[in-house]
């Protein structure tokens, strides 16, 4: 058997060993991102009205 024949025999195993786990990881990250975006939490504490007021005060000068 030539090397091309061996590659044809091994390519399904390579797909299972390399491609499918990578696809699973990408899908898991996509699902986590979708859940996080659909369920937004409160705004972070650092984005309070004090910061916005400072910007408005600078604009009025």
Strand content: under 5%
- For the secondary structure, the number of strands is 0
Can you summarize the main beta sheet? none
Number of domains: 1
Mean pLDDT: 82
Fraction in helix: over 70%
* Total helical elements: 2
In words, what does this structure look like?
The chain has helices spanning 3-38, 49-60. With 61 residues, the chain is an all-alpha fold. The longest helix is centred in the middle third of the chain and has 36 residues, at 3-38. It has one domain. The model has no long low-confidence stretch (mean pLDDT 82). It is 79% helix and 0% strand.
Task: Record keyword descriptors for this entry.
single chain, 61 residues, 2 helices, 79% helix, 0% strand
């Amino acid at each position: 058997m030539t090397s091309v024949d061996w590659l044809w025999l091994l390519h399904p195993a390579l797909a299972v060993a390399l491609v499918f786990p990578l696809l699973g990881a990408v899908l898991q990250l996509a699902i986590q991102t979708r859940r996080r975006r659909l369920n937004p939490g409160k705004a972070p504490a650092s984005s309070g009205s004090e910061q916005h007021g400072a910007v408005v005060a600078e604009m009025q000068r």
